[in-house]
Design a protein that fits this description.
The protein is built from 20 helices and 24 strands. It is an alpha+beta fold and 680 residues long. Strands 1, 2, 3, 4, 5, 6, 7, 8 and 9 form a 9-stranded mixed β-sheet that branches.
């Protein structure tokens, strides 16, 4: 293509300069990650974090958060209150400067906060920019100061509107509907976040109120004197505990405060939640690396010293000492270096050695002072190591067998002809009957089918060596191509989409849950990278003559019947009775909206009308129907599996698939009435 020439049209006038908070409204995703529900809730976190920062500094012990009518949010604290005197640089009130200037705040110069989570200094001003209305009231110097804003622009100067006792800040904001297409705050999500903050900040009381519906106001208050020790105990509730006395250390070194609590349980997965200045570093960082190094070294040293490991035994690996561990790591420092505005990973190099040193010293002391707890911990770790070695042997057997057979794929797998993984998808199907329909109905070029025989092993209750004894799971591992355990390599994934397709009944739901448990516990990266989906076959087929509609919910079924009734009305003979819906069959497999006297597609006087078929299994569909409704990229509906809250996900899997019956019974009793499309 020929290079274009500039005819003098491109100059300084083409360079757009965004002033004040305009960049935030122009590109909100750069500051809050997006304008969906995650971004909406990020506004709440930014305002709350300012109050949490006050409590971390010891200036605040009470925080209120209220969801009000008209999508308004109120946050109040009893901290020092935002300064209101004139700022020397902007010549405006410090309050107005903080609320309207990016990167302005008490978190950069060192005099405002020693420890802070909102170190990018954009929190309050970004919330202001993305709110159609905001009001900040400050109790300070015996007066109540106030300023209001529209889309980040002050309506007037900061002014005193009355007298006030004590100190603190109260913020009201209303997210801008021009920025956020959906404004619906998730009460449960907010409760979980605030509970977590209360655990992480000993001595602060947090009150939450949802008054959006005046007739059904609800509220919670959180206060945890035990801090993260209480947090660990709460996450291990309902599990078999290995060390009754949780490990806990709180120590400061080189201006970094390290606080760690941990406790082992009988599960097969670790739950490590890391924080830096109360910010959840979901991608870990140097503090996690330092902790894991210390944990492995201390437990190996103690195991050698006390004879848990013999001279010929291998050392415990990092994975061996993590299995069944619940741990909270929270470091607090003056200048944390986060990666990106979302602060997902801590990068301070010096923190690794500080956490390593403090954990080593404290854990060595803990093991010596608590020999019974130490014995329980090491016994579990050694058992895990043995299972790992057994699993390695089983895995190597599979690999050797595969090599001898030329890496033959499972016999039941109907593979696709396409070899580029990003264009391929694998349907995991329940049973040979559905598998047969799927194989006939699929597009052989890019769709592969793997039928499962019965229900797979519940991996929540099994160690890795038992996983390899399950033929169905082995078939799935070989088909995926990514390996498992320490040999997992997502770059070898053979299919871009892995689609779970089961019947719309209790057994199908159980099989789907077992598969999701397998993916979550052993192939979590497949979920986090967006490769796992759940197919949505229709529940009903509504037909009148040659015209038919598919319904995926009860609501769609009702709407489809109404649509068909309109069709009936067009063809109805003069004087015929109205359409009547009757139930046919003992189990209600089919419903018929009968049309007396209608001879369309039938004889005179026969009961011909709208047939409603309930699909109980995929095998009931012929290949063409399965393709049209569930497998065709042009018409299918699929649910993408993702992890919105790792802590909540872990808890639910533990409850539903773990060994303890009582929590599962309570869960079922709590949510039984909310189940939809239940077919027993």
């Amino acid at each position: 293509m020929a290079k274009k020439t500039d005819n003098g049209e491109y100059g300084a006038k083409n360079i757009q300069v965004l002033e004040g908070l305009e960049p935030v409204r122009k590109r909100p995703g750069m500051y809050i990650g997006g304008t969906g529900l995650d971004g909406l809730h990020h506004l709440v976190w930014e305002v709350i974090d300012n109050s949490i920062d006050e409590s971390l500094g010891g200036y605040c012990d009470y925080i209120e958060l209220e969801l009000m009518e008209n999508n308004r949010v109120r946050v109040r604290d009893n901290g020092r209150g935002i300064p209101v005197d004139k700022h020397p640089h902007t010549k405006k009130s410090a309050l107005e400067t903080i609320m309207t200037v990016l990167h302005a705040g008490g978190k950069f110069g060192g005099g405002g906060y020693k420890v802070s989570g909102g170190l990018h200094g954009v929190g309050a001003s970004v919330v202001n920019a993305l709110s159609s209305y905001m009001r900040v009231e400050v109790r300070r110097e015996g007066k109540l100061w106030m300023q209001e804003y529209n889309a980040g622009v002050p309506k007037a100067d900061v002014k005193a509107i009355g007298k006030a006792e004590g100190t603190g800040t109260e913020t009201f904001f209303e997210a801008d509907s021009l920025i956020f297409k959906e404004i619906e705050y998730d009460w449960k999500r907010i409760v979980n976040r605030m509970r977590q903050q209360a655990y992480l900040t000993k001595g602060v009381r947090i009150k939450l109120t949802d008054s959006r519906n005046p007739e059904a106001i609800r509220s919670y208050s959180f206060y945890f004197d035990g801090g993260i020790v209480s947090y660990v105990k709460q996450m291990n509730e309902g599990k078999e505990i290995k060390n009754e006395t949780p490990f806990y250390v709180e120590k400061e070194k080189d201006n970094v405060l390290v606080e760690i609590a941990m406790q082992y349980n009988d599960s097969f997965k670790d739950h490590i939640f890391a924080f830096a200045n109360n910010i959840n570093t979901i991608d870990g960082g140097t503090h996690v690396v330092g902790f894991r190094m210390a944990l492995t070294r201390s437990l190996n040293a103690y195991a050698r010293k006390k004879g848990f490991l013999k001279e010929k035994d291998e050392n415990l690996s990092g994975d061996d000492v993590l299995e069944g561990l619940t741990a909270i790591i929270n470091v607090k420092m003056v200048d944390p270096q986060f990666e990106g505005q979302t602060k997902g990973k801590l990068g301070n190099a010096e923190v690794k050695s500080i956490v390593n040193s403090i954990t080593n010293e404290a854990l060595d002391y803990y093991l010596e002072e608590n020999p019974n707890d130490a014995k329980s911990i090491l016994s579990k770790c050694v058992l895990t190591a043995k299972a790992r070695l057994a699993a390695r042997a089983a895995r190597d057997t599979i690999i050797r067998k595969g090599a001898l057979e030329g890496m033959t794929l499972p016999g039941k797998l109907a593979d696709c002809s396409e070899r580029k993984a990003d264009r391929c998808e694998l349907y995991i199907v329940e049973g040979d009957s559905a598998g047969g329909s799927a194989k006939q109905g699929r597009d052989r070029k890019f769709q592969a089918i793997l039928p499962l025989r019965g229900k797979i092993l519940n991996v929540e209750k099994a160690q890795l060596d038992r996983v390899f004894t399950s033929q169905e799971i082995k078939n799935l591992i070989i088909a995926l191509g990514v390996g498992i355990g320490d040999k997992f390599d997502i770059t070898k994934l053979r299919y871009n989409r892995i689609i779970i397709m089961t019947d719309a009944d209790v057994d199908g739901a159980h099989i789907r849950t077992l598969l999701l448990t397998l993916f979550y516990r052993y192939f979590e990266d497949l979920i986090t990278d967006g490769h796992v989906y759940i197919a949505q076959p229709p529940l009903y087929k509504i037909q009148y003559g040659k015209k038919y509609l598919y319904a995926f919910t009860e609501e769609e079924r009702a709407a489809a019947i109404v649509e068909m009734q309109k069709e009936v009305a067009k063809r109805k003979k003069p004087g015929a009775e109205e359409v009547v819906v009757i139930e046919a069959g003992e189990e209600g497999d089919e419903l018929a909206a009968a049309v007396p006297g209608d001879d369309f597609d039938g004889g005179e006087g026969e009961m011909k009308g709208i047939n409603v078929q309930r699909y109980k299994g995929l095998g009931e569909m012929n290949p063409e129907q399965l393709w049209e409704t569930t497998m065709s990229p042009q018409t299918r509906i699929m649910k993408k599996v993702f992890i919105a809250d790792a802590e909540e996900a872990d808890s639910v899997f533990d409850i539903l698939m773990g060994n303890e019956v009582a929590p599962r019974k309570k869960f079922i009793q709590t949510y039984a009435k909310t189940v939809q499309n239940l077919d027993i």
